[in-house]
Amino acid sequence: MSNKANITPDDILRFLEHEKEVYGPFSVSIPAEKTEHTETNLSSEKEPEQPKPVSPSPAPPLSPSPQTLEDRLAACTTLEGLRSLCEEAEELKTDLENTRLVFGVGNPEADLMLIGEAPGEQEDIQGEPFVGAAGQLLNKILNAINFEREDVYIANILKHRPPGNRNPNPDERIRSLPYLLRQVDLIRPKVILCLGKVSGTTLLKAEEPLRNLRGQFYPFRDAQLTVTYHPAALLRNSQWKRPTWEDVQKVRKKYDELGGKP
Ligand code: URA
Ligand code: URA
Questions:
Q1: How far is the centre of ligand 2, averaged over its atoms, from the C-alpha of 25 (Å)?
Q2: Inter-CA distances, 51 with 13, 14, 54, 73, Å
Q3: How far is the C-alpha of 60 from the C-alpha of 22, rounded, in Å?
Q4: For a pocket test of ligand 2, which of 229, 237, 240, 241 has the largest count of ligand atoms closer than 8 A to its C-beta?
Q5: Pocket residue to mutate for ligand 2, from 210, 211, 244, most atoms within 8 A of Cβ
Q6: Tell me, what's the pLDDT at 23?
Q7: CA of residue 92 to ligand 1 center, whole Å
Q8: Which residues of the chain fall below pLDDT 70?
Q9: I want to staple 194 with a disulfide (CB 3.0 to 4.6 A). Which of 58, 166, 180, 200 is the partner?
Q10: Is 119 in the pocket of ligand 1 (CB under 6 A)?
């Protein structure tokens, strides 16, 4: 009671000014008839001649210094550390509820990294990329160019399943990309193969049809990146098998030229 009586209008004003400094201009205006100190005169108010001891004590600093996502990603020096960060990251989720993180799988030292689009139903259930029908075909494609699935690293643009397997929307891709790029930088592959249009256009930041992107290598981080058809697309359109075969042979050649692990 007596404490309350000691709070002067100047104290309130100082408090409000502090709030304004910390949180920015008020988004609600203070009704003029309830107080003579409106938002406009807050900033023009002169310092009192006799500054009184601040009461109550100055506001405590805001929560522990906010770390940027960039800082938190840079602090991940292992894939396991990055996986833990991804487990906590709400921004990696889609609007499908209760999906599982599909972080990535394979050899952490891989010289070839494959990047698909987003987990599907089987991937969500098993927590591993490319384990459904498209994954079976991907394994065959890898075998055809003398890789075992275990030799390479496999990830997706999105780490959570979108509802109904719809294409990841631009916002989801933008939110997931920094995590994927950190993953790429931790693995440091020599060659990156993007599977399908979503993967290729997201990483190359080029909204081009897949047929314009494929068949060439692009410098990307410390790697050479190329794009081919998505295995799920091959299951529907067998006319893309031939160009895919050509693309993956180029991948094998580039991998060997760059001294990829035998
Ligand atoms: N399709 C993808 O793009 N990624 C998977 O992990 C599975 C299917
Ligand atoms: N269009 C796509 O979106 N993906 C493919 O793999 C091929 C065509």
A1: 48
A2: 13, 11, 8, 45
A3: 11
A4: 229
A5: 210
A6: 45
A7: 16
A8: 1-65
A9: 200
A10: yes
Ligand minimally distant from the alpha carbon of residue 230: 2
How far is the centre of ligand 1, averaged over its atoms, from the C-alpha of 76 (Å)? 25
Please report the DSSP string for 108-136 in residue order: TT-SEEEEES---HHHHHHTSSS-SHHHH
Encoded tokens for 19: 């709030």
The residue ranges of every structural domain in the chain are: 69-257
Cβ partners under 8 Å of residue 156, min gap 6: 102, 104, 115, 116, 117, 118, 119, 123, 129, 199
pLDDT at residue 66, as a whole number? 74
pLDDT tens-digit series, residues 59-95:
666 666 679 999 999 999 999 999 999 999 999 999 9
Q: Write out pLDDT tens, residues 128-163.
A: 999 999 999 999 999 999 999 999 999 999 999 999
- Of the CATH numbers 3.40.470.10, 3.40.50.1820, 3.40.50.300, 3.20.20.20, which one belongs to the domain with range 69-257? 3.40.470.10
Compute, in angstroms, the gap from residue 257 CA to the centroid of ligand 1: 28
116 lines ligand 1 (CB under 6 A): yes
What is the CA(129)–ligand 1 centre distance, in A?
6
Is the Cβ atom of 123 under 6 angstroms away from ligand 1?
A: yes
